[in-house]
Amino acid sequence: MARYLLRRLNLFLATSFVLFIVLFIVTSHFPVEKSFALTGLHSPNAQQIEQIEKNYSLNDGQFSQFFSYLQQRLSGDLGISATSQRPVIEELASVLPASFELAAVSAMLALTLGIPLGVLASLSRHKITQHTIMAITLTGYSIPVFWLGLTLSLWFGVQLGWLPISGQLNLLYEIEPVTGFVLIDTLLSDSPYSTSAFIDALLHIILPAITLAVLPFTVVVRITRAAIITIMDQTYIKAAEARGLHTSRVVLRHALPNALIPVLKNLGLMLGPFASYAMVVEVIFAWPGVGAWLVSGIYQRDYTVIQGGVLAVALIIIFISIMIEVLYTAINPLSRKELYASN
């Protein structure tokens, strides 16, 4: 297992290295001065220009420039935002928690609703129930996320007025940030209106979380259904049923744990589309996350923000994908068998 973990670590490092190469090449093709694209400084003085040339080796060859660029980025120097003149790393740290919070709530919704429906679709003997569930998942998978977000905002936010359609929390509530996750910070707050603030934050996250959860929900339902159908035909399941165990007990204790393994694997493959969908959702609902921040940087031609946002999103996707693969290998007996055989 140690050799496998070492290989995954090498994969993470190699993929990250390629990512830095791509960002360096793209940065050199931005339609601005290279010093401005790297640092975000509008009109640097002579001393600053000299320091930039020294830090990024602008007077040397491409290889020296790349390794200097790599050194600066790995040290946490992502430049300064050309719009706000704040360090990009600070802005990134301020918007990451909102994106993580939205993604976590959406993933919980997708798994909490998708797994039971997938089991129901696989075990139900009523064709109407099966076809209805599969029709819902197919429809949800086919609906464009921007159309769904705008439609939910129009129905539940504008016409009915049930839910807020923008922001993370009402500006009337002054909650001191502790963790960066508003739902948690409102509960930790000693403010007399912390309960009202928590309810308000919960109402704000409902529409964007539902919109973002539709895609993984449909995939979870279909993968769970297919896995349960396959597993219920296995010999050990038939043996358990022959011993007189109730179907619900067989499913919960034997079939469902094994069915979650392919679900986990497919969740890792969905991280890229999930991240792109999250950016669209954040823009639609004015959610103060990385996606909205990155899109705003693109509109304003804030090149350091673009680099920082792309770098952060890509590294997070690479890291979580590899962690899911490691977890999948750890809990899947067949993968462990192949792993030990290869060693």
Would you mind describing this structure in some detail?
- By secondary structure, the chain is an all-alpha fold.
- The chain has a domain at 89-289: MetI-like fold.
- 77% of the residues lie in helices and 0% in strands.
- The protein has 15 helices and no strands.
- The chain has helices at residues 2-28, 34-39, 46-56, 62-74, 88-123, 127-142, 145-159, 182-188, 194-231, 235-242, 247-269, 271-284, 290-299, 303-331, 333-342.
- Helix 7 (145-159) crosses helix 9 (194-231) and helix 9 packs across helix 11 (247-269).
- The protein starts with a helix and ends with a helix.
Name its key features.
343 residues, mainly alpha, MetI-like fold, globular
Topology overview:
Elements: H1 2-28, H2 34-39, H3 46-56, H4 62-74, H5 88-123, H6 127-142, H7 145-159, H8 182-188, H9 194-231, H10 235-242, H11 247-269, H12 271-284, H13 290-299, H14 303-331, H15 333-342
Oligomer: single chain
Question: Could you tell me the radius of gyration in angstroms?
Answer: 24 Å
* Helix/strand order, N-terminal first: HHHHHHHHHHHHHHH
Low-pLDDT residue spans: none
Provide a compact summary of the structure.
The protein is mostly helical. 77% of the residues lie in helices and 0% in strands.
